[in-house]
Design brief:
The protein is of the alpha+beta class and about 170 residues long. The protein is built from 6 helices and 10 strands. It has a single domain, classed as Heat Shock Protein 90. The longest helix is centred in the first third of the chain and has 13 residues. One of its GO terms (molecular function) is ATP hydrolysis activity.
C-alpha cells in the first residue's frame, strides 16, 4: 500500500496494557499458522467491519518476511482500535439482534482473536486503520520483541490517532 497523506495532525493517545507473559501462552490457542490466518480473515468478514475484499501479501520489511493483511472495511477509530488490542472487549453480540436471513453473523465473542492470531504468526503486529466516517487514521503496535528487549513487567501498547484534514489521503492498494 502506498499512501501520501497531506497533513496529519496528532489528536490523542490511548494506552492499553497487558502482562508480557500472556502473549506466548495466548498464541498457543492456535495449533498451526493457518488457524491464526483464519482468525484474522474472520475478523475482516465480521458485519461491523463491512469489508468486501481482503488481500494477504508476503512482503520483506527491514529484510524480514512479513504478512500484510489489508481489507477495504470501514476502519476503526482509536477507541475501537484500543478495545481490539486489549483483552476481553467484544461488541459483536449487538449485531446478532440485527441479523436477518442474508446478514453476515459475527464470528467470535471473547475479544481474543486478533491478539491470539497475530501473536501466533509473528512477534510483532503493527495496525494501520483509516476511519473515513470520522476522518481519522489510527496506528497501534503489539510487540513481544519490545517487551523482551526492554525486560518489561507490563507492556504498554502504543496507540495513536491522527486527524486527516479535509480527508485528504491518497492511497493506492495493489
Amino acid at each position: 500500500m502506498t499512501c501520501s497523506p497531506a497533513l496529519l495532525v496528532f489528536k490523542s493517545s490511548l494506552i492499553p496494557q497487558v502482562n508480557p507473559n500472556f502473549w506466548h501462552s495466548n498464541s498457543t490457542s492456535h495449533t498451526w499458522s493457518f488457524s491464526a490466518i483464519a482468525e484474522l480473515i474472520d475478523n475482516a468478514n465480521d458485519p461491523d467491519v463491512a469489508a468486501s475484499e481482503l488481500w494477504i501479501d508476503k512482503e520483506r520489511i527491514g529484510g524480514k518476511p512479513c504478512l500484510v493483511f489489508t481489507d477495504n472495511g470501514k476502519g476503526m477509530d482509536s477507541a475501537t482500535l484500543s478495545k481490539m488490542m486489549s483483552f476481553g472487549y467484544c461488541e459483536k453480540a449487538k449485531y446478532e439482534k440485527q441479523a436477518g436471513p442474508k446478514v453476515r453473523m459475527p464470528i467470535g465473542q471473547y475479544g481474543n482473536g486478533f491478539k491470539s492470531g497475530s501473536m501466533r504468526l509473528a512477534k510483532d503486529a503493527l495496525v494501520f486503520t483509516v476511519r473515513k466516517e470520522s476522518q481519522t487514521a489510527s496506528v497501534g503496535f503489539l510487540s513481544q520483541t519490545m517487551c523482551a528487549d526492554g525486560n518489561m513487567d507490563t507492556l504498554v501498547l502504543p496507540l495513536l490517532e491522527y486527524t486527516l484534514p479535509n480527508y485528504i489521503l491518497l492511497c493506492a492498494v495493489k
